[in-house]
Amino acid sequence: MITDYPEFCEITLDQRPALHALFQRYDRGLSEMTFSNMFLYRHNDQHDHRIARIGEDNYVFVGRDREQPVFMLPFELPEKKLLDELFSKFHQLKAIAPDQAQQIASRGYHVWENRDDFDYLYSRQALAELRGNKYHSKKNLVNKFVNTFEAAGRALLPEFRHDALHVLDAWSAARDISGDYSAAREAVEKAEELRLCGWIYYIDKGPVAFAMGEEINRGRTFLVKFEKAVSPDTFKGIYQFVNQTFVNLLPEKYETVNREQDLGDPGLRQAKMSYKPVGFVKKFRAEMNG
After folding, report:
1. pTM of the model
2. Which domains does the chain have, with CATH numbers?
3. pLDDT digits (tens, 9 = 90+) for 35-66
4. CA-CA distances (angstroms) from residue 107 to 12, 60, 70, 77, 286?
């Protein structure tokens, strides 16, 4: 049951059939626009997603972004009166695709391109093969890892859930901030219900890393949502190894791999750029003029 606007309700698993069907038809390729994303960040301190119905097969999602109220309209834009009301209540509209940005600008709102939100797009084949000089350092790290450690991987099925949570806890313990820990934990725990697929890696029978994601963009793109490892200092090259081997497991039907945004973090931006993206999924934000 989803409440009608202006009443908002929590996002629940029983809403998935209806909402997932709508998101499956969504072909703009934005990483935010999946049911799993809206669900996994519904209790997150940074996002706190909620939902309301604003028409037949049309919904508005609200939440927070950097402590600022925001809303998202993944499907159809409502009439201007309602849009004005949403702007007055939630200030900013985020995760706007380019075609929607043009429509919103034509209605007189202030619209701008937000580089920090851009999703990074990579060639699936290029990430799988790591050929050529531009991937020389990545390939070297993978080769050194393979020559140093005997790693084994397997599908992240329910019987390996505990091992993935062990990896996640070790990853979190080595960091000063929680980041996406809670979302990643629930993704592991509810992978079947959310239809997320993943792979887990072991060294000497101990779990050391996992990766998870899902299909988007009408089956043309695979979205890597979570990629965690216990200690890149202990297992040098582990992230490069996981990145390549996980992509190698993906069906060839996926033309591109979406590895989400860098959120303006300089280190994360450098790391994502080092994998030579073939493009970006551009996103815009908007607010009322004046």
Report:
1. 0.95
2. 13-118 (3.40.630.30), 119-260 (3.40.630.30)
3. 999 999 998 666 789 999 999 999 999 999 87
4. 33, 18, 19, 11, 11
